[in-house]
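Reopening this ticket.

The earlier resolution said the output was attached, but the attachment link was broken on my side. Pasting everything inline this time so it's all in one place.
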Amino acid sequence: MHFILFLIVAAICAIIASALVPGRIPGGFLVAMVCGFIGAWIGGSLMGNFGPALAGVSLIPTIVGSAVLVLCMSLISGLTHEAA
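Inline output:
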């Protein structure tokens, strides 16, 4: 149950991050969960664990890490759409 809450909170952080940066997460809520999970790892690696936490997820590093991931994904998808 804890892992499901972790994924839901990470997905919500990824959706917040996608609203903050230009670009979007292709694929909906399931891809947002994956982006949030990876974003939590990226944010935790870059910034550590600080700020408020919910279900074991530090919210500020997760949002920042997800924003970095969403920005990279939108840049890569933009490059592949231009090449096609």
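Reporter confirms the inline version is readable. The mean pLDDT is 79. Strands lie at 53-54, 57-58.
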